[in-house]
Amino acid sequence: MKHNTTDRLVNFDIQAFQADLIDWYDKEQRDLPWRKDRDPYKVWVSEIMLQQTRVDTVIPYFNRFITEFPTLESLADADEERVLKAWEGLGYYSRVRNLQAGVKEVKASYHSKVPNTPDEISKLKGVGPYTTGAILSIAYGVPEPAVDGNVMRVLSRILSIWNDIAKVKTRQLFEGIVREIISKDNPSHFNQALMELGALICVPGKPACLLCPVQQHCRAFREGVQAELPVKSKKKAPRPLSMSAAVILDDSGKILIHKRPSKGLLANLWEFPNHESVVEFNTQKQQLSEFLKEEHSIDVKLSTQFTTIQHIFSHLVWNISVFEGTLIGGFEDQEDFKLVTRSELETYAFPVSHQKIFKDFLKVMN
Ligand code: SF4
After folding, report:
1. What is the residue with the minimal CA distance to atom 7 of ligand 1?
2. Which residue minimizes the CA distance to atom 2 of ligand 1?
3. CA contacts within 13 A on the Cβ side of 181
4. How far is the CA of 209 from the centre of ligand 1 (A)?
5. Does the beta carbon of 150 sit less than 6 angstroms from any atom of ligand 1?
6. Which CATH number fits domain 7-228: 3.40.50.1380, 3.20.20.380, 1.10.340.30, 3.40.190.80?
7. For ligand 1, what atom is nearest to the CA of residue 209?
8. Annotated domain spans of the chain
9. Helix orientation angle between 55-68 and 40-50, rounded to the nearest 10 degrees
10. Of 28, 47, 175, 228, which is the active-site residue?
11. 229 CB under 6 A from ligand 1?
């Protein structure tokens, strides 16, 4: 049977729910650096960092990032290389590229003040419905829904909703519900309380129902089905990709690095020369040296394989065999290849997988 938003809320005491949720949040909220003020720029940065990344991981990144780019203008004006370096290790680099593009738009079109209407905010680069709602409610007190996977899990349970949360339609259903139940007096704390409940109590798997401040409103708890919710269809398993890479040195000990293309996965980050392997394992070394010679006119001699690195993206798994190598003959810097010293290398932004390569390389050298 199909239910509309209003059907779901029959016999649901919205006001008592708001009061119990917000009271709990006011007492129990964690002391997080982005909650110190309601600066929309900082809310924006924190929400983008928190997408697909845990709070504990984000805290030091957020503090460093805000120290380096304390204002929206400072981020808008910053060199992309510096911005990527400040994000290094957080992954999903398109997030920070879009963030910088978004703040540039705000600087150019809104006198550096983050706009406060859903229409204007949602048009900014990288700002989807969730971030729009988070900025508007937290920074400006506008009663807009901010619905992510966390909030959908909590509300699926509270209202015993069995729709698949992987579907866009389900997110829209929850947005409709939040519009009905959000506190108009304190939308900021209401939205943050839902997020906090999902992070601390109504966690995936086994929620801590006995500690839950809204237990008496929760239909899944009453029905004993909280562990079965939310319903989420499985994504396709990530595709494995076999690769070879090498840390290649010249006579003076300088290291060869490569800049990734400006579009696509990990765009504009630096890495060690690498290549997708198309045939068997024992020819990987040869494939990589032939690729460098034929595609980039770089002559190398590769020797021992010193490590294997696996890196899992949402859609892809890189299995990288990594070799030591030396440069043969001359080399002149190219647009996307450079020779750098060890200390220069530290100033370039590398993806996590290639940071691991270098760590393992240093272990072998020492
Ligand atoms: Fe989640 Fe349990 Fe609280 Fe319901 S009672 S909201 S399932 S923690």
Report:
1. 226
2. 209
3. 32
4. 5
5. no
6. 1.10.340.30
7. 2
8. 7-228, 239-365
9. 140
10. 47
11. no
Confidence of residue 137 (pLDDT cuts 50, 70, 90): very high
Give the pLDDT of residue 282: 66
Give pTM, 2 decimals: 0.79
Helix residue ranges per DSSP H, the chain: 5-8, 14-28, 40-50, 55-68, 72-77, 80-87, 94-109, 118-122, 129-134, 140, 149-158, 168-181, 187-200, 219-223, 284-296, 342-345, 352-365
Confidence of residue 37 (pLDDT cuts 50, 70, 90): confident
- Token couple for 103: 């703040």
Contact 21, 190 (CB under 8 A): yes
Render pLDDT for 273-327 as a digit per residue (tens, 0 to 9). 999 987 665 688 889 999 999 889 899 999 999 999 999 988 899 999 999 999 9
| Stretch 188-212: mean pLDDT | 96
Q: What six digits make up the tokens of 349?
A: 């932004």
Looking from the CA of residue 213, the nearest atom of ligand 1 is 3
Extract the tokens encoding 4: 């509309």
Q: Is the dihedral of CA 292, 293, 296, 299 positive or negative?
A: positive
